[in-house]
Amino acid sequence: MSRTRLHPAWIVAAVAFVALVGAAGFRATPAVLIHPLHAEFRWPLGTISAAVSVNLVLFGLTAPFAAALMERFGVRRVVAAALLVVAAGSALTVFMTASWQLILCWGVLVGLGTGSMALSFVATVTGRWFVRRRGLVTGVLTAGSAAGQLVFLPVLATVTGEHGWRTAALIVAGAALAVVPLIWFLLRDHPAELGVTAYGATEPAPPTPHDGRGAAARALGGLAAAARTRPFWLLAGGFAICGATTNGLVGTHFIPAAHDHGMPQTTAAGLLALVGLFDIVGTIASGWLTDRVDSRLLLGAYYALRGASLLVLPSLFAATAEPNMLVFIVFYGLDWVATVPPTVALCREYFGDNGPVVFGWVFASHQIGAAVAATGAGVIRDQLGTYALAWYVAGALSIGAAVLSLLLRRDRGPVSAPVPEPALAGGWRLREP
């Protein structure tokens, strides 16, 4: 490759970024629809939150299987199919008349579709296409989630207010369909398809060995092997709390909580979009730091600072966006998914080339935590008439996640191989205490 020619890895990263932007926007939509659905159908907030929880759980549980499917059938096919499923799920909501249909469409279909474009997709792309700048690119792609929130939330809130939630749902379906051609024609599975090496690699990567197992067997085998190690449980525990305090609580309930204090929904959606704006900066910076600083220390700092901010949040809500709330938005945005680059790096460090699949399971714990928080906060609001308890519990849990992350420093012991050697390429083995 000439030094003046753009490496194809950057084109792949750009296309993946667009897909992740869309996936984030599709996931963010339920936060805008909670009150319109409650007003039209009179469904309890707990019921609507349950549909969000199903979405979050499937979004997480699909990730490791999607990573294995990408190994078997290719990234391009899996992501294109996922976008079609998202479009179908979003479009079908305009016909629903019962709450179970909301769970089927936004919960099951959109959850499965967006789960196939989850952060294990990021781990797969960066693992195949980058050697140099891997942490930075992981941060940029993760920031795609923030960009999707930034692009979609204010637009959908405005459309919902002026034209109704059905129009917003159709916009999401159309956006998903619009990305499919871009994925199909520009996304490539491996550098070898274009006759190049990964960015920064000096020689072609050896092909990942296949042991004849299907995607499900590979995903479950990765879980079985990783579950024997202490680092997996520490990473999964911390990431479950990460999900509970971001997608599950703030992402789902910040707008309704602000509305409880008299803030217009469009204003609250704009604040949440600002979280996405500053998250772009924070996540890219986190990727840069991940290439230079111990990932365990980064995670400990991120979780501790998040916990402190959540403990003061209940006192910041008001009918207008006061300066102290704006300070919280900036701070929380910088920290929102800054945890992803160091978590991806640790999964690769401990689990080698099997890291994307294992990260898929760690990410599944993230979404299970998010689902519990989404439903739990809705129930707390229904029973107590306020979200305050949910914010305090989330703050305490975040501080606990900081402790779990720092405990990872004690696990760098002897290297062993609890899975068959063919399961991990390049001489990697799993680290155990």
From TrEMBL:
Check the record and name the InterPro entries matching this protein: MFS (IPR011701), MFS_dom (IPR020846), MFS_trans_sf (IPR036259), Proton-linked_MCT (IPR050327)
Membrane as a keyword of this entry, yes or no, is yes
Alphabetically ordered keywords of this record: Membrane, Transmembrane, Transmembrane helix
Q: Which residues cross the membrane?
A: 44-66, 78-95, 101-123, 135-156, 168-187, 232-255, 267-289, 301-319, 325-346, 358-380, 386-408
> Could you tell me where this protein is found in the cell?
Cell membrane
Q: Locate the Major facilitator superfamily (MFS) profile domain: which residues?
A: 11-413
> GO molecular function, one example?
transmembrane transporter activity
Q: Which domain of life is it from?
A: Bacteria
Give the CC-aspect GO terms. Answer: plasma membrane
Membrane-protein topology: Multi-pass membrane protein
Pfam families recorded: MFS_1 (PF07690)
Q: Which protein are we looking at?
A: Predicted arabinose efflux permease, MFS family
Q: Which organism is it from?
A: Micromonospora pattaloongensis
